[in-house]
Design brief:
The complex is a heterodimer of chains A (about 300) and B (about 450). The relative contact order of chain A is 0.09. In chain A, strands 1, 2, 3 and 6 form a four-stranded antiparallel sheet that branches. In chain A, strands 5-4-7-8 form a four-stranded antiparallel sheet, with no helix packed on it. In chain A, about 35% of the residues lie in helices and about 20% in strands. Among the domains of chain A are: about 30-125, Cytochrome c-like domain (Cytochrome Bc1 Complex, Chain D, domain 2, Orthogonal Bundle); about 145-235, Immunoglobulin-like. In chain A, helix 3 (about 45-60) packs across helix 7 and helix 6 crosses helix 7. Chain A is flat and about 125 Å long. Chain A is an alpha+beta fold and about 300 residues long. Chain B has a single domain (about 20-425), classed as Formate dehydrogenase/DMSO reductase fold, CATH 1.20.1630. The interface between A and B is medium-sized, with 28 and 28 residues.
Chain lengths: ~300, ~450
């Protein structure tokens, strides 16, 4: 018994140590000064918050819980609630860096998200802080080009052709990412950079399922430094989907009218056959009556 | 040598007298019918309650929506199959000894089959919607098949009771002068002017033979389809390819037991010891051993094949039966209601009328609870866990109205048999006579 008590104390001590160590670990996460001061080139508007929310709910909720609810997963070190003070005292750049690079059990999202998508998440986290005032970079003297895009599909090589212009001039070295929009999210088609003619090519899988006409809703984003643009277009570039009703044809699970022929024949032939025989016997009873006068 | 029929050499007059004397409305009958009627009215009061308040008065709920009503339905359909085995299979194989008890088997079959259809209606919260099955029923649904075969089986059983009885109805018409007028009229019209001519016998034998052949596939399909009501669903414990033969073999056990009980009752109350002899009981006991063996064989298959597997839903179901939640009832039914009784009947003294009848009662009760074990536990083990529902929904126990309505179905069966056995002779008189003449001429 006494021995047991000793164990308990040791375990308790270890747990305390771990807890303290975790708090230390959390506060010890040093972000390079340059990254810490980095500012979002985008104004955190409702659109960004909404997009950030979708990304957060897909990839962050499982550990961090719903912001403001303190329902994060009990882990060591604790992931914490992004709406909490520990998160909100940090700079935008620090949050951006930590999401992008990850550390320990916090995964690195560098490959999963583009920079603008990471900023969406920061915008979403900030939306829980009423006192937050976004600090914008000094844009004096910086000219942000306004991009226009045109999309087309080259069916000979199965490529999506994205042309980026600004005031009718082709824009080289613009990062382009193309997505197919679905009902519940978007599917990344690919990423590319524009060439000197302002054209980027993105591969399209020819087996991609589209609607009945082979149409998909394509969304393309173009970003370069502070400039960004977005375009959505329904394009015929995927495999047409032939839609079949689940009860099309004759099946056991169909309506009565569409019952399998073999079943209808079996059922009705058996039932009518038996009842025919029974009626034959019932009417035959008259013959018994007639036969009473036999010589 | 056939020892079973009329050991003493009775004259035809004596046979007529012995077998017709029960066709009357005696005081004992009136007392018995009065008792049944009062009991039925009490039970029907509970059905009135159910009609008014819906199935809420029963113990049924979202998980166990088939309780003792459906178990009882399966039991009734099962018991009614015996008519086919005795009068058709044994009758066509010219097994002579079954002739005096064939009509009793047919009575039991008809009564149970008639009430089986009614039990389905008691399981409906809105019986007025029964018509929808006929209007909107899908030919793919086993329920539609079930209704088709149950109705057909009732009609065939009725005809199979009626047509071979024609000579006896004629006898009633000719000999029974002291019965009420309506009854005399009924015999007159039902006997179809039966005059014992050779042609009439020929026609009767022809139609009877047709019915005896027809009833075999119909009887097999009535209980196979009843088993398919369960087996066609993807549920552990029901989803079994041997459910059809498993049900049919179980049906013969229940039916044999019911016929033995009815035989004992008629033998003692109608003083028919010379016609339904101890030898009949001995042979029925042997028949019961045979069908019980087949049923035990199917039970072993039904348990050991899924139970052998480690962790499937079917294995869990079997383990619940063997040593889990339902184990007490399971072992009572399997050992007490099937294995021990059939081992006992292997010994000749146990096949004497009284011990055999007692054993038959135990087997019949076991057969009823066996149906509950087939119907209920499966529904309490759905693939999704039972959660966020009222606490009572994790189990099932029938309520008073449910039990009363079930009792009502038994009362109805007994009433039907009682009335029919008072209107017509329960032992086929002309066949007994024919048999005797046949023997005397040898």
């Amino acid at each position: 018994m006494k021995n047991n008590k000793g164990y308990h104390i040791i375990i308790l001590f270890c747990l305390c140590f771990l807890a303290v160590a975790n708090v230390n670990a959390q506060s010890d996460w040093q972000v390079p000064a340059e990254e810490n001061e980095k500012l979002s080139p985008f104004l955190f508007d409702d659109d960004m918050v909404l997009e950030g929310r979708v990304a957060y709910e897909n990839l962050c909720t499982s550990c961090h819980g719903t912001p403001g609810q303190d329902d994060f997963t009990p882990m060591s070190p604790p992931p914490g609630d992004p709406a909490g003070e520990q998160f909100q005292v940090q700079s935008d750049g620090s949050m951006f860096y930590k999401i992008k690079m990850g550390r320990g059990t916090m995964p690195k999202f560098e490959d999963a998200f583009e920079d603008d998508e990471l900023w969406n998440i920061v915008a979403y986290i900030r939306s829980f802080n009423e006192d937050y005032k976004q600090e914008l970079p000094n844009m004096e003297g910086v000219v942000i080009p306004e991009y226009a895009m045109s999309l087309s599909f080259d069916e000979n090589v199965d490529k999506l052709v994205v042309k980026v212009f600004a005031e009718e001039l082709p824009q080289p070295e613009v990062s382009v990412s193309a997505y197919v929009m679905g009902t519940f999210g978007k599917h990344l088609l690919g990423k590319a950079q524009t060439n000197e003619l302002g054209i980027a090519y993105v591969d399209v899988d020819p087996t991609l399922p589209g609607d009945e006409e082979g149409k998909v809703n394509v969304m393309v984003k173009a970003t370069k430094e502070f400039a960004r643009a977005k375009i959505e277009k329904h394009m015929v570039m995927a495999k047409p989907t032939e839609r079949h009703s689940a009860i099309e044809g004759r099946h056991i699970w169909s309506t009565d009218r569409m019952a399998p022929i073999w079943l209808k024949i079996t059922f009705f032939v058996s039932v009518f056959g038996v009842w025919f025989a029974l009626l034959f016997i019932v009417f035959g009873l008259r013959n018994i009556k007639k036969a009473r006068e036999e010589a | 040598m056939n020892e079973t029929i009329a050991k003493g050499h009775f004259s035809e007059e004596q046979i007529d007298k012995d077998l017709l004397k029960n066709v009357n409305w005696g005081g004992k009958f009136k007392l018995w019918m009065g008792f049944l009627t009062v009991s039925l009215i009490i039970c029907l009061y509970y059905y009135y309650q159910q009609l008014q308040n819906g199935l809420g008065v029963t113990g049924l709920h979202d998980y166990v929506s088939w309780g003792i009503y459906i178990s009882n339905f399966v039991f009734f359909v099962a018991t009614s199959l015996i008519g086919m085995l005795v009068s058709s299979v044994l009758g066509m194989m010219k097994v002579e000894w079954v002739r005096p008890v064939a009509r009793i088997a047919e009575l039991v079959a008809l009564a149970f089959a008639m009430v089986a259809g009614l039990i389905i209606i008691t399981d409906m919260g809105r019986p007025d919607r029964l018509l929808n099955v006929f209007i909107h029923g899908r030919v793919q649904s086993p329920i539609v098949w079930d209704i088709a075969v149950v109705v057909t089986y009732v009609v065939i059983s009725g005809l199979l009771l009626y047509i071979p009885m024609l000579p006896d109805i004629a006898l009633c018409r000719d000999k029974l002068n002291n019965v009420p007028k309506w009854q005399q009229k009924m015999y007159k019209s039902l006997s179809l002017g039966w005059n014992n001519t050779a042609k009439q016998f020929r026609l009767m034998n022809r139609y009877t033979r047709m019915l005896l052949i027809l009833i075999i596939p119909i009887a097999l399909s009535i209980h196979t389809v009843t088993s398919w009501l369960f087996a066609m669903t993807l549920r552990s414990g029901w989803d079994s390819p041997i459910f059809g033969p498993y049900f049919v073999s179980g049906a013969f056990v229940a039916g044999c037991a019911a016929v033995i009980i009815a035989m004992f009752f008629f033998r003692n109350n109608y003083k028919l010891k010379e016609y339904i002899t101890a030898d009949h009981f001995d042979r029925m006991g042997k028949l019961l051993v045979l069908v019980a063996l087949v049923y035990v064989y199917f039970n072993i298959n039904e348990i050991i094949v899924p139970g052998y597997k480690a962790n499937t839903a079917d294995a869990k179901h079997v383990h619940e039966m063997l040593y889990g939640h339902d184990s007490v009832m399971f072992w009572l039914v399997q050992l007490g209601g099937l294995v021990i009784p059939f081992l006992l009947i292997l010994f000749k003294p146990m096949r004497k009328p009284l011990p055999l009848t007692i054993i038959a009662v135990v087997i019949l009760a076991g057969a009823w609870f066996k149906r509950v074990l087939i119907v209920v536990p499966t529904q309490l083990a759905p693939y999704y866990p039972i959660q966020n529902v009222p606490e009572g929904w994790t189990g099932y126990s029938p309520t008073t109205p449910e039990v009363a309505i079930t009792v009502a179905s038994f009362i109805l069966v007994v009433m039907i048999i009682t009335v029919l056995a008072k209107l017509f002779p329960v032992v086929p008189i002309w066949e007994v006579k024919e048999d005797m003449n046949h023997k005397n001429n040898k």
